[in-house]
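Researcher: Here's the sequence for the chain we discussed earlier.
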Amino acid sequence: MSENKLLLGKSSLHVIVVVLGDLGRSPRMQYHASSLLKEGHTVSLVGYTGEKLITELQDNTEDRLHVIRFSVPSPDIFKKVLPIYLIWRILSLCLYLLYALMVSVPNESIKSSTKRRVDCVLVQNPPAMPLLFVVHIYCILTSIIKGYRPAFIIDWHNLLYEQIMAPLANSHLCVTDAMKTFIQKEFGVSDRKIHVLHDCPPSMFKTQTSKENHRLLTKIHGKLCASCSKKSCPRSWYQHLDPSTQTLFTEKISNSTTNGADKYSPRLNRPALVTSSTSWTTDEDFGILLDALVRLDVRISELKSSLKVVVIVTGKGPQKGFYQKEISILKLKNIAIQTIWLEPADYPRLLACADLGVSLHTSTSGIDLPMKILDLFGCEVPVCAYNFPSLPELVKDDVNGRIFESASDLHEQLLILLSPLDTYPGCWPPHGFGDLARYSRKLLGRKRWDGNWKENALPAIQSVCR
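Model: Thanks. This is the structure I predict for it:
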């Protein structure tokens, strides 16, 4: 009998994991769900329709996972009058959430012997309006109707209006030590109820072999080159490549001295590969990166360097169209900027191919941390990150990356970090040259999500579930 089967029964919990957003774009809550399933618990994952879930959840065939996704209509007629729209939005969200919690979750068909009783509701915050209130009402209604009250746990990612709701939760998870201190002092929550669960990369974010890198870069080669002529990537960068054996960055070499076995390696005179993941919102000033890249392009030309840089930007969001137009009018000679959307399984593979990552996250509270940096660190890829108060909990300047505060800072850092690629054209791993190699060594052996979750989150959940 498997370990998970042994865990089912009396010690097995049913946890609702809920986020007021697209489940596919809520990685931390998906990781919670995956970890709970691995411990033998039942999970109802509730949130908006949208992007695909991570591979572990997509491929899960167990009866203990129930995914409830919905979308809330927003009639155009209401959008014309903001006060009416806001009232409609809040009321409709309340109704849809209550329906999902009170009807969809209990009515899910559970074929196995796992119990239907909901022991706990784990909520992502933000967004909090009106989620925290609705979950609190759900717990009260469950107590009245069914005679037991599910525990209410808030997983704090950032802070907005939550001072009123915070004391009503049974337990709290937060992403930084600074956030724990803030919740304790400002919201009056007992220290014993607050548990720090630092973001850690799950196992999918890891280093790859040359062959694995080549396979991914071959897959996306068409995306990177198809629109190059409309943007800033000179055709000369790829027109002489053999697409059957070469990408912009790697190549496959048939070696007769090894009985014809193929060898995979970085391509000589390849561009540097920089990645940046963004939600395309005002929380991340993408203009800083564009300004830095324009300055970098000028400096490369002035120095008559052979350095070429491809910047791959991933993500979706409201400002994407605006910045795509801004990118399309740039006259860059040495830098290409590509905005693409990847399948969930391909995103960690792309990060593993990168020389360097850039984080533009600016915290509204100053006491959260960006998950995108942890993803890069899981692949042992250093970062340049925009500075804010809690960032030193994660990024140590000139130790595992660089911290910048302006476009001028960033362009200088990029030039210094990427220029040695001219000296080490065939280096492996991709970021294994100059200061990047030194930073990458500091990222070895970092704690992973599963171990960190089992040590810090699981006890917090079990302690409030009866």
